[in-house]
Amino acid sequence: MEHQFFLKLSQFPVIICRICRHGVWPSEVSSHLQGKNHHLPQATAKQVHKAIQGWDGIEHDPLAIQWPASLAQSIPELDEYPDGLLCQHAPMQCHYITRSIKTIKRHWREHHGWKVLYKGGRPNHHEQEQAQTMVQQGFKVVTCQQFFPSRKGSHYIWVRSPEPLARPAGPAPSLGVQAAVDEVVQAWEQAQARAKADQAIQASQLTDANPWLRMTRWADYLQGIQAHDLLACVAAPEEDPQDATEQCVQVVWATMEQVARKSQQTVQHCSQAIRVEAVRSEKGQTPHRPLLAYMDEAAIQKHVRPWQQILAFITRTQAPHNWTSPKYGMTTRQRQKWRQLWQLASQAVVPEELEGLEAWSMTTIEKACLEFCIELLNQRHRSHEYESVLVCAMAVLGQGEAGWRDPESYPPILSRVIKVARFMVVQKALWMDPNPWQIIQTWVQKDQSAEWVLASADDQLGEIDEGYGSDDPLSSPPSSPPSAIHSDDPLPAVNIHPSRRPFQEQVTWMMHQFMIRGTHGPMETLLDWRTYGLKVHYNHTVPGHVTWMGEDQLLYQQIAFSMGDFWGFVHGLVTVAREILGHLCMQDHAQMPPIPWTALYDDPSQSQAGWNFVHDARTQWPVDGTHWMIDRLRAEPTMQRHFLWGGRFHPTAIQQY
Asked: Where do the record's region annotations for Disordered lie (predicted)?
């Protein structure tokens, strides 16, 4: 197996990697095979490493090899570099070679004490020419090679008589070609996947939706954090997790769904006045319609998902973790409620659905979850919106699989978060009432005349005859009730505790404290984001204006041209584009697959960065453009002679291409 990857030079006691075309020290074989160019499994790499150690005639000590000052001819197993710069200041003693003019100047300065000198001031034209001549006389352009890419043996060696690159007369062996192509394709796909996974968010990373990202400032807050880590921290938990943190995430995830279901159930049964108050977003506003529950009971599972992701993000970032996570803080009340929820989630199991009156009751962990969610809303900003952990979590939800969510895809998430938040406010207000079970009993029995709820709006309201004397005959009460209905009036059944508000008053109080604009809290931020996102989505116009002057003059911003000029420009552009396309495809224009110009589809609604009409699935292309060049390389001898040598890709040809 080891001979597939390495060969031993006949002239020197070193081994060469067939793919990378440079030397590898025997002690580094395993790490090299597991590196970026091979990605072999550890077990395979160690097997090859062990076999290499038994090869005869290879040197293990880098200091024991005497490297030549020059080579009579090039070594075929190593890459050639025709742009080497050989120092000429002491040609008998100095054999230094580099491939950078900047590096050769530094070598002159540090080893020969020579540099281009001027008399002072800015050099004139003659001095510049003289200095340029001296620089050119200081080096000689030669062909060079190097055994190792770094450390000992990485210096360039002069090849005195380089031979032209020998190419086989016929095509490379078929099996070797296919194996080489498959290896490169696999390595390229793996490199793309790693690059995408390791991409960190930059503070200046503003894609097509610049105004939207400037508004939300997600890139600034999430700077330096890997996108795949953000997606992982809000992902749904596994079915049967073994990790303790993931077990807590699973419990919190399921508990949040139950809280949302019970909150929606409360909204479905409460009065019209409460639902009108709960949908309010501004002070003094008269909502046109009340807060509505989702028509489909199963839809709550979909719409509660953003809240589940918010709690999953907090759970995973509060537990110890080995990745760079977004920074955020909590208020004292939030921290207290979170500790209660975490403690209960660590000891609980996934809750089950209940029936009957038990379906209205809230378990201890559901109460803790509801209290924590309300505390996420119950916050006031002092300097900026990212003081709120809820806003921080919403920024994490702004990262999607294909990049930032735009004004089209993100506002629906905001709407779900806002609506479920209103559900939970109503739910907490119910359980803040002094008699929540009496309210629930009324809803369950569909009793519209529950006596306990009959109460005056103002028990201290004055009467018409208040202030008259007791001797006034009109002031004496009648001797008997005017009607029989009043004789059955119940005595007051409920004494509301003065420190607790009833259901509807509690809804009004919480809405005005932290659920409407002007409260400077996270809900105001979410409302502003949603309003701005919808405005951008529905009212955004493409910048730039086109106008006409006369019969044939077109004006675009500061440019003016006629249609004849435009036709000539397009004709020249097409000609140049065809030349570039033919050069890149290595094929004459007449031999290329025809482009279906009259059947090209485009989707202007696609706002994903990098998307263009070529990706539209409705267009029927004559070939698969993503694999066309690779397929030609597999089949065409001309392509194989250009890129392959002895069944292996030639790195120099690929780099030049």
From this structure: 465-497
